Amino acid sequence: GAGGGSAGAGGTPTNSDTCANPPLVQFTGGAAAFTVNTVGARDDADGTCNVNARGAEHVFRLSLPQPKDITITAARALGSSANPVIYVRSTNCEFGTQLACQDSASAATAETITLLNRSGELFLFVESYGATPGVMTVAISLADPTVAPPNDECSSALPLTFDTSGRAQVTGSTTLATNSNSSGDQIPSCSTTARDDGRDVMFRYTLSGPSDVDLVVTPADGGSLVPIISVRPLAQCASGLLANELGCGRDSNLFAGLPATLSLFSQPAGDYAIWLDSALQSSGAYTLTVQTTPTPAPPTNDSCSGPLALRFDGGVAIASGTTQGATNNNGASDPSPSCSNGAATEGLDVIHSFSLSQLQDVALLVSPTGASTLRPVVYLRPLSQCADGGVATELACARSSTVTPVQTTVTRLPPGDYAVWVDSDTRSARGTYDLQVTLLPPTPLPMNDTCGTATPVSNFAPGTNPTVTLFGSTQFATNDNQAGPNPTCSLAARSNGRDVFYRYDLPTGSHSVSFTVSQQPGTSWTPVLYTENACMPAATQLACFTSTSTVQLASTTLTQSGPGTFYLGVDSTTVVGGPFRLDGRIGAPPNDQCTSPRAITLSTPTVDNSIVDITRLSTNDFSNTSVPPYPQSCTTYTEAGKDLVYSFTYTGTAPRSVTATVTPQSGFDVALARLEGSCSAASCVAFDDSGGGGTTEELTWTAQPGTTYWLIVDGYTATHEGAFRLKVQ
């Protein structure tokens, strides 16, 4: 074909355009270099990496009587417009198996293919991407072949040799290793891709007595290996049954280059097999480190049957201990410790105890010491329920995700006996620690901790003062509802919740009254809100709503007849409470239509100007069937729900990005629309209803100085209504 190419020192081949007679590349000293010009050549073949754009190519033959590693590089020649693509086939030029294909996005990038341990006939296709023929330079080098690892099967597992400190370290590579798993294998359990197509090698070690064994696989710097490590009894090395896996470790994110770790505790004397595997079809060099340590005797306070009693001096008790040799006394399905799933499922734990003779605040502090790897978790239970992993028995829980101290304070702890659990966030995090327990004066109760001391909602009246915003906290409140029956919508609130109370008076007549409770930013607790016509035990519950998450709101809407006094309970589903905002409204919201939008101002990192509102008493004025309707760009769904209107005027002097966020109560499938130019459904330019009930929706845009925007808080369907928080920041 026209153009042609020159191979080695052998001049210009006359027929390299097709597979009919590809020229043989001649090597000198294990290398070859030549130029290829695809101008005038035909497109007779395509690699898998260039099957769509295609391009004219030339073909060359490589004959390797002995196995070699081959590196092939093609680059655009100086002044050429070529965009190189290279691919290699084996055995047969036209129909052989493609071994590799390389095509990057940039024409200026040299393309490189490396083939390991290859011999026999190979066919190299040098192509120029699409309609960009031209001159390219090709360089090929041969090197001694990379060989398959000698420990690629269980039968050839390499023995590890431990030094006097019980440490063994070896280096190697999984390159050219095979997958020794069989179809249907259940292990390695921590990686499906390792079972399906991972490249694995095997090691074996012997323990002369019970030992803790820590294994780490560290990929070589810059390598692509995603390591998986698992251990089996040596006699069951080739078994794929889950029952024969003693442990499996990986990087939690399966990132290339990050180590995989595995810790095994109290392994009996015997022979064991290590599978060093790989995920995501990766391979590469690694360092395997195995550290064995004789298993220490279990601490005397390893279980609830033998907690170590703390002794106080001046209201402070300090104890030192270790989780080395301890076991995990929690059940894998226990909800406690609630702050650490790792501590519940695998952490090593010990228990201390103390007694209180009077009501106290109690501060708990756990600090890792020495060379400890402990990532501490501390939690508190009544001593009589020490082994009960239910959430109702947990009085406090705190964790650290690193080897740093962790602390928490339990307020208003009544007289009694208590168990302090010192745990670890992961099974491999263990070691020595100091525990400090400090007794403090009890935190005073909120003034409105009982219904009898309910805070009056002042300046709240129809017409004159139809809205009210109050701030409070359940953080240090007690639970006044254990006898029930209210709040009926939450057994958890009755059993554990911290509650405070408000009361409001209504004049003669019928009134629509709405209240919404929302957690303050930075807190994490699940609110419950309910209304009663009197204090217990004479109370009749009029309404009750519980949120289903720590970010959603709780609200009630009632039609009530006055005159009369009514009571509002703000509760929580767990012993964790916190600060909140309580918003109330008498009557329908005035911002139901564009004639009277409610203004909202920009929130800052230090000032929260969000609005809490409720759509239950509004009407449906904006939808894809309203007059005028939403435009097509704002009709993801019908949006036939009730809606409210807000106006936002940007007062800055330069354009800036702003985000409007609406957070609804549980179950409320809320939508958010932005209007520009006028307050009309037809002026909608952006819309978000991407989530389901209770999901936050948001819109981000570049606000222009002096420009007013209208925000519509809408509902997905006519049945979706409720409370929400709207914030622009």
Stretches where pLDDT is under 50 for at least 5 consecutive residues are 1-14
Multimerization status:
single chain
Number of helices: 3
Per DSSP, what share of the residues sits in E-state strands of 2 or more residues?
35-45%
Largest sheet, in brief, is: 7 strands, mixed
Q: End-to-end span in angstroms?
A: 66 Å
Helix content: under 10%
Q: Radius of gyration, rounded?
A: 36 Å
Arithmetic mean of pLDDT: 91
Main traits of this protein?
3 helices, mainly beta, 40 strands, 6-stranded antiparallel sheet, 729 residues
Briefly summarize what is shown.
By secondary structure, the chain is mainly β. The strands form eight sheets. Strands 25, 26, 27, 28, 29, 30 and 31 form a seven-stranded mixed β-sheet that branches. It has a six-stranded antiparallel β-sheet with strand order 1-6-2-5-3-4, with no helix packed on it.
